[in-house]
Amino acid sequence: MMPAPERNTLTWTEKYLIYAQDKTENLSLLDCVFLAEYVVPDDEMMGASKVVLRNASNETIATYDDNDLFGLTNGYRYIRKSRSYNKPADLERDVPPDTQFSWIIERGAKTIALSPICIGGPERATAIPSPAPLKLSQGGRPVAPDAIDPGEDLAVEFPAMGAGVAWPGSDWRDLNLLLLDDQFGRVLYTGGAPGAESGFLDGEATGAIIPAGTLHGGGEFVLFISQVRFVDSNESHGVRQVAANSYAIELPILTIGEAPAAEPGLIPRRSDHRFSRKVQATDRLQPWPSFAERIA
User: Fold this and answer.
1) Is 4 among the domain residues?
2) Exposed end of the chain (fewer CB within 10 Å): N or C?
3) Contact at 8 Å (CB) between 126 and 232?
4) How far apart are the C-alpha atoms of 276 and 289, rounded to whole Å?
């Protein structure tokens, strides 16, 4: 996910399917996820606050505080917790689209209850876009993911979702979040969010260009896309809240040519946003596994 540019505190709840794409454009389902994030600007700390997420039965399913593992993106720190399911039907059964979630902010003796957010929005319907494989080309010609020339622009094609509904009071609406990272977990390209240097890839977009020189020769990289459909949003006590239904695809790519000299001290790892492993089902959502890998 990526937070809104106005530097609000943000809550984010999401139904999320994750796929791996191979070089023959086959998609394999890796995980079916319910996740929830609490997001604050990186120069702010939660301090004495504790944040609680409750389901429609008023059961606490996650808590958040400054001791939690977190990721960083665009000047924000986000605490992500999740639960895995074996197949979409299991996710749908456990988190039906009419489920409402409530975030509670506890600051000492003061408790702030935010307005509920519905995982299926006003329509009470699951709206995860249909996945389709990414298509790559260079110089107007299709290119295999294991034969990318780092000296040429890389065109990435994906299906349009449609314009979608804008968040009230913001420039945001359904989007394609496109990221490219190297084998050391460094994000080299980011597209998708309003105000992003590489442009806003809204739901009507069908492609993006990763400029020549972004990649180096002889390297291993992963191209990641998440097609994000926003189904519900509100603002409560100054906190922006959203619910999303989305999927992601991870496509490993290799570049031709000579690899540069190895940089000392770098250790191969996944980027924070990437899939690592399924999260064991418990009564509480668990920390996103890639965060733990980073500090291990």
Assistant:
1) no
2) C
3) no
4) 6
Residue 131 has pLDDT above 90, yes or no: yes
Q: Which domain holds residue 90?
A: 10-295
Residue 127 has a pLDDT of 95
Tokens of 167: 């968040």
182 backbone φψ class: left, alpha, beta (φ>0; ψ -120 to 50): beta
Say which amino acid occupies 178: L
**Is the predicted pLDDT of residue 171 greater than 70, yes or no?**
no
Taking the C-alpha atoms of residue 2 and residue 184, their distance in angstroms, rounded to an integer, is 21
Number of domains in the chain: 1
- Summarize the chain as % helix, strand, coil (round to 5): 5, 45, 50
Let me know if residue 30 belongs to a domain: yes
- Residue 250 gets the label, from left (phi > 0), alpha (psi -120 to 50) or beta, of beta
pLDDT band at 4, cuts 50/70/90?
Answer: very low
Cα separation, 255 vs 27, in Å, equals 21
166 pLDDT higher than 60 = yes
Give the Cα separation of 132 and 202 in Å (integer).
Answer: 17
Instruction: Report residue 246 as tokens.
Output: 């989305």
Distances (CA, A) of 213 to 190, 219, 224, 231, 271: 15, 12, 18, 37, 20
**Dist CA 107 CA 232 (whole Å):** 26
Tokens of 252: 């490993």
Quick check: is 5 in a domain? no
Asked whether residue 257 is assigned to any structural domain, the reply reads: yes
SS3 (DSSP) at 161: coil
Classified as helix, coil or strand, 293 is: helix
From the number of C-beta atoms within 10 Å of its C-beta (0-12, 13-18, 19+), residue 109 rates as exposed
CB atoms within 10 A of CB 193: 22
As beta bridge partners, residue 234 has 241
Q: What's the Cα-to-Cα distance from 117 to each of 12, 56, 114, 121, 232, rounded to whole Å?
A: 9, 10, 9, 8, 7
